[in-house]
Write a structure and sequence with these properties.
Blueprint: H1 58-74, H2 80-111, H3 123-155, E1 158-160, H4 168-182, E2 189-191, E3 205-213, E4 218-225, E5 233-235, H5 248-252, E6 258-262, H6 263-269, H7 271-274, E7 279-290, H8 304-315, E8 320-326, H9 331-341, E9 348-351, H10 361-364, H11 382-390, H12 395-401, E10 404-408, H13 417-426, E11 430-437, H14 445-455, E12 459-464, H15 472-484, E13 488-490, E14 497-498, E15 501-509, E16 512-520, E17 532-539, H16 542-556, E18 567-570, H17 574-590, E19 596-601, H18 607-619, E20 622-627, E21 644-648, E22 654-655, E23 659-662, E24 669-673, H19 679-683, E25 685-692, H20 695-709, E26 715-718, E27 724-727, H21 739-751
Parallel strand pairs: 1-6, 8-9, 11-12, 12-13, 14-25, 17-22, 19-20, 20-21
Antiparallel strand pairs: 2-4, 3-4, 3-7, 5-6, 7-8, 10-17, 11-15, 15-16, 16-17, 18-25, 19-23, 21-26, 23-24, 24-25, 26-27
């Protein structure tokens, strides 16, 4: 992968942990560096006292994560439409961040709750830092789009046009499209003494229009919403008779190419039809982001499902937390919007059009394989494949023979987890199925399998988390569908989200009942399973079966004093269990034995766990962390964390698995599961980690983690000052290993009997 704009200024062979002054970083202002108070300046009063300023700020660390996503969009080595896709991810990530995290900050500031974060920053300081970073990164995004992506798209025959760039024939075709398909959907909303300022829905794209009544010489404001039900990028040739029957992809391959016009451009060109008798003076695009976090007092809700449905209605009317406007908007219109939306200038972001670059998804959806990642077909996991062929698909025999470790998306979800649930639903010997569902889809084969099982008379229990953020409405819908089919639907525990990934089938066999279990790191969602990197364990181990039975009973009934054999469960035992194992490695090191700690998570911000890792580092234990997203730890700081190295991997697949490894090679204790090292996971969610026992699987997971944390793999390295530097080439200029490509080759080669990793 090519160096990004930042890395071009760096020595690609720079040592991890190089002094801050040798590193160029976009977050270098004095205010922004407040998030990393240098530990060296604090000094240490006692040998075991941990200094202040040792935690990075959670929100600002997230901004750095989204910067890494943006750097993927800037990577000229990636296929063009994948670069565009990463740009859309950057935008959608930022949307959600503002809807939830920034909204929460603003709410605390408005309420006067100025609690200082673990990083030492006040909510106002954090908000100022977020705003500064957002301006910097969005400016960088649109620059990359206009100066790099857009010209490259043109070279590939994908032309994004403005209305004025079209010829008469093209305009005529789009005018007909407007009158037939768009005009009937539009509703212009005027603002005057008899028409109050309209409600502007969150994330909708709008036109702020100023019209003149030439008879009275009075001007008026009107708002026109760009319909979200229509394609954002309209293909011109699709509405020209001479191109009828020719696929967009085929047109793109010609010398002429094919043209796309943003829907808002078409609407703006036809505003005169919406305001007959008026003169259109101005039209500017704008977009608002609202507070869309849900607040449900569960103790006061007799029925959580009903309470959630009511709260979803309120969500749409949350206060505005961000206003994006076209950079050429007039000052008078901008002031009008600021006043009516009840925001400040700090909440306004002026950007070149088109606003909302998630529109690029329309291009990514095109069937243009030469502009995307090469196609990869997941394989049946080796632990299942050997029995699948010999026993006509007897998944039970495979699991009885040994625990089966799954690594998605390299291992197929459909021939493993999905097959496991579907087989259980259809097998007459299966008496009961118990399943947690955090995020899935209503048309999921897993949901349908549970329905089929219930209708066939099996005892089926689904622990449905209807508070899964932004999936609440969908989860309510298919939860009701499950209930109507006779599934016993339980909505988790009061005050806790059920985030663990568990499935269990109870089967009657010759020697009695046997429990077949799946414990995973990812959601039971067939679509995301193709794009998320996750792990899972299929087992009929007696201890795991007992553990899952007890945990399901705890979730559906009353079992507060439950204990477990092969599971660590939050909120009762994951934090304490992990810290205990960290301290065991410290004790090993102090006894002169080899010690090691390796952790792979999405995020780490839990102060107690971070402090335990700092103590391990100060004791001399090597600590490897692979963190995709938020990282509250500081790496390579003398006297604190010189034995901690932190890597971040982003790529074709979203790194989503969690691995906890303790001990030197050959003597590791390895756990996988659903829990990240965050307060919400450890204190406010039901999470589960399962210990992996099979020696070969332990070795695989340990090697995977060590490899990802090594200097041999392309990744971002966390520096002591809190900045991240991307390493794609080694000291001699050799391209570093792309771990996801290696794992794809590994999976494909397993089918042919060859071992790669």
């Amino acid at each position: 992968m090519a160096d990004t704009e930042i890395n071009k200024q760096l020595d690609p062979d720079a040592e991890v942990g190089a002094p801050a002054e040798e590193t160029k970083t976009p977050f270098s202002s004095a205010e922004q560096k407040d998030m990393f108070i240098l530990v060296e300046k604090e000094g240490h009063k006692e040998e075991d006292e941990l200094p202040k300023g040792r935690f990075a700020d959670r929100e600002l660390s997230w901004m750095r994560f989204n910067q890494r996503v943006l750097e993927q969009s800037e990577d000229t080595e990636l296929p063009l439409l994948e670069r565009a896709w990463f740009s859309t991810i950057f935008s959608s990530n930022l949307d959600e961040f503002y809807m939830v995290r920034v909204a929460g900050l603003k709410r605390r500031i408005a309420a006067g709750i100025a609690k200082v974060a673990a990083s030492g920053l006040t909510p106002r300081q954090v908000l100022d830092g977020i705003t500064s970073h957002t301006r910097e990164l969005t400016t960088r995004q649109v620059k990359d789009f206009h100066e790099d992506l857009l010209p490259l798209l043109h070279e590939q025959g994908l032309h994004l046009r403005k209305w004025e760039e079209l010829n008469d024939k093209q305009r005529e075709a789009l005018s007909e499209y407007f009158h037939n398909r768009v005009f009937p959907v539009l509703t212009p909303l005027a603002v005057d003494p008899s028409h109050p300022f309209p409600y502007i829905s969150g994330l909708s794209l709008n036109l702020a229009v100023v019209v003149l009544n030439e008879a009275t010489e009075k001007t008026y404001f009107a708002r026109v919403k760009v319909p979200q039900s229509l394609p954002r990028l309209v293909n011109v040739e699709a509405f020209m008779p001479e191109y009828e029957g020719i696929a967009i992809e085929d047109l793109a391959a010609t010398k002429v190419g094919t043209n796309f016009v943003p829907l808002e451009e078409i609407i703006a060109a036809h505003l005169y039809t919406l305001f007959p008798g008026m003169k259109v003076l101005e039209a500017h695009t704008f977009r608002v982001t609202r507070n869309e976090d849900l607040e449900v007092e569960e103790d006061d809700a007799e029925n959580l499902l009903t309470a959630m449905e009511k709260e979803l209605l309120r969500r749409r009317f949350g206060p505005v937390v961000r206003l994006e406007v076209a950079e050429d908007i007039s000052e008078s219109v901008l002031r009008f919007l600021i006043d009516r939306l009840e925001i400040t200038e700090q909440d306004v972001f002026k950007l070149p059009e088109p606003l909302d670059l998630t529109a690029l998804n329309d291009l990514h959806d095109l069937d243009l394989p030469h502009l995307k990642y090469p196609k990869y077909v997941p394989v049946t996991p080796s632990g299942l494949a050997e029995y699948e062929s010999a026993r006509a698909g007897d998944i039970w025999a495979s699991i009885r023979n040994h625990d089966v470790l799954l690594h998605h998306p390299y291992d197929s979800f459909s021939t493993s987890v999905q097959h496991f649930v579907a087989t259980a639903a259809a097998d007459p010997k299966v008496l009961a199925i118990k399943q947690t569902l955090y995020r899935t889809s209503g048309d999921s084969p897993i949901v349908q399998a549970l329905i089929d099982a219930a209708q066939s008379g099996k005892q089926v229990v689904a622990i449905v988390e209807i508070k899964a953020r932004f999936d609440e409405e969908a989860n309510i819908s298919w939860a009701r569908k499950l209930e109507r089919a006779g599934v016993h639907v339980v909505y988790g525990m009061v005050g806790l989200k059920t985030h663990c990934k568990l499935s269990m089938a109870v089967r009657e066999e010759a020697d009695g009942l046997r429990r077949y279990c799946h414990v995973g790191t990812g959601n039971y969602h067939p679509k995301t399973a193709r794009g998320y990197e996750d792990l899972g364990l299929l087992t009929c181990d007696r201890d795991v079966g007992q553990d899952l039975t007890r945990l399901f009973n705890q979730l559906s009934g009353y079992a507060p004093r439950t204990t477990f054999h092969r599971l660590l469960v939050a909120p009762t035992s994951i934090r304490s269990g992990l810290i205990e194992r960290i301290e065991e490695q410290v004790a090993r090191h102090e006894r002169g034995e080899d010690a090691y700690i390796g952790i792979k998570v999405n995020s780490i911000v839990d102060e107690a766990t971070i402090d335990a890792l700092y103590r391990a580092s100060r004791a001399g234990v090597q600590v490897d962390l692979v963190v995709r997203g938020i990282c509250g730890i500081r790496a390579g700081v003398p006297g604190l964390s010189e034995n901690i190295r932190v890597r971040s991997i982003l790529g074709r697949y979203l790194e989503h698995s969690r691995i906890y490894c303790f001990g030197p090679e050959g003597d590791e204790e390895v756990w996988i599961g659903s829990a990240d090292l965050m307060h919400r996971n450890l204190d406010r969610r039901v999470e589960a980690l399962v210990r992996v026992k099979d020696e070969g699987q332990v070795a695989y997971l340990s090697k995977l983690l060590r490899t990802e944390a090594s200097d041999e793999v392309s990744s971002w390295h966390l520096l002591p000052d809190g900045s991240w530097v991307r390493h794609t080439h080694g000291k001699k200029g050799k391209e570093l290993l792309d771990i996801q490509k290696l794992l794809m080759r590994n999976a494909s080669s397993r089918v042919k009997g060859r071992k790669v990793f």
